[in-house]
Amino acid sequence: MRNLPPGAKAPGSVAGSLSNSISGSGKHNKKKQMQQQAVIDESTRLISTDAQPAFEGKLLKLCCYISVTILSLTLIIVSALFFVYNAKTDGDSESIFAELPCYTKDPAITSALYTTTMKKIEVDLSKFPNAVCNDGSPAAYYYKPALSNVGHENIWNVHFEGGNWCTDEESCDFRSRLTRYNAKKIADGEDLKDPQSTWYVTSSKLWSDTMDVGGIFAPPPCSPLYGVHQIFVAYCSSDAWMGDMTATNETFGLHFQGANIYDAVVQSVLQIHGLQPAMDKCLVEECEKKPLLLLGGYSAGARGTMLHIDFVRKNLGPAVNVYGVMDSGMWLDIEPEPKAVRSGRLSLKQETINAMAMFKVHKTSILDWKCMDDHEGELWKCMFPQYRMPYVQTPYVVTSSQRDAFMELKLFAEGVQTMPDGVTWVSDSKDRREMHQKISSTFLETIFSLKKLRPDNAFFSAACLDHAVSLDQKYLNWVTTRDFSTTMLTALEKGLDRFGFITYDETCPKPCPARNVENDTLHTDLVFLDTCFPVGAACGGCHAYTHEERKSNTHGESDPRDHSVGYEIVLANYSMGDRR
């Protein structure tokens, strides 16, 4: 408060007392009255001036009260959200602060919030006597039931493991010896094995009673695939889920019953894990949403699914939606480099021909009849992904790298090399770099050809050296240069949404629409690709290189990391319909 003039009283009493004094003094002269009026005016001014800080103090207190109220309400809302999500996770260690699907995805930031624990279940041999591993032990899968408080009890995600195959005595004996070696270590006290680390096994006796798995089995809580029935089918038949052979001398004493295991697992999902009752309900009364069966796998699991999925869909009938999820199963008909051929490396074509003869696949019912008519005399093509996929009628998503590590292992004499960067790529031999680009271009051509046949299907292809990532956090993280927000998981969700197979949680944002990059209409229609090569967005893409680094190509050629020219040529051919 400002100081009053000498002799003045505190504001609040001065005005009243002076006013009374004036009203009662008619005897004072005019000069005295003027002096008194001056004092009154000054006192009034002081009262007005000193009242302003008091008003400002009250206003400050009001603002503080409002701020505290807003903060309190915010904390209440956050606490409520935490309670809802904590209840929704049902014991899994997810966080409500998970990155929502519509955010631009940084591949360096993991979305792998948790892993799912699944329990081992052996196939009932009294019902499915042929569903056995190579050594005759019962096939097995891992299962976790749907969460009861999420609302996704009508979705079943069945994923078949990969692990190559064996097509001659030498390769089959290798798998058997490796299995026996690890079985002995377990007998000597080592723990049972996680199936994810035993792609080679010929027996289910090595597998642990539980397994922890991520990727497609650990989507974030806002995903429409969160909390569904989860089934992981472990691999022990060494035949890419295609065989129907009991053990004989011709099979080196091994069973090859992958096709029967595949069927037994689907039947178990129907009879034991609730799919049949859900289907029956939709036949009796109108369903708001049909049950959904995701049927897929990685590597050999994807290749097996390519043969089975149409037959499963037909046999189950119209009361269920079936959707394929195929990771890293896209084999290409490319001959190995000459050095690899000279060292005895078989082409993937020859391996497939050998497998058909060994597993008697042509005598089973899993080959497509139209494909066999079209490829009479070359029936191996009907079990080879590049030629089989055009006949698949069931909707699907394909995820596979343009630099698939398995393809490189098979096509190069030295096998898989370190991921090329600005130095090692340009120092590679010209022949090797040309082979890399041939693999990528053939893969892109195959994708565009399939897209033309089935416009509503989804495709995701990074240009990173990798293979079979559907159980990895990469499935939740990786993006491409054509869309920095769509991951492999959200590509799957967008594919399902295209057919109306899923429902998004109204409290969560839907995944962002595909970004229209460079007016590429194909990309916006469920095709998500890296267009720079050989390193894509998720593994330090070409967009990260400086102009100076781009000029460091010592071969005097166009920068092989810039794959956009080749991409545009393939796209132009696709648009003109120049596809085989």
Can I get a quick summary?
The chain has 580 residues and is an alpha/beta fold. The chain has 18 helices and 12 strands.
Radius of gyration, Cα only, in angstroms?
Answer: 35 Å
- How many individual β-strands? 12
Give the biggest sheet. 10 strands, mixed
Question: How are the strands of the biggest sheet laid out side by side?
Answer: 4-1-2-5-3-6-7-8-10-12
Helix-strand pattern: HHEEEHEEHHEHEHHHHEEHHHEEHHHEHH
| Shape, principal axes of CA atoms | globular
SS field, number of helical segments: 18
Distance between the termini: 92 Å
Helix content: 25-40%
Mean pLDDT: 78
Q: Structural class of the helices, strands and pairings? A: alpha/beta
Strand content: 5-15%
In the predicted model, the low-confidence regions spanning at least 5 consecutive residues are 1-32, 42-53, 77-104, 420-424, 543-580
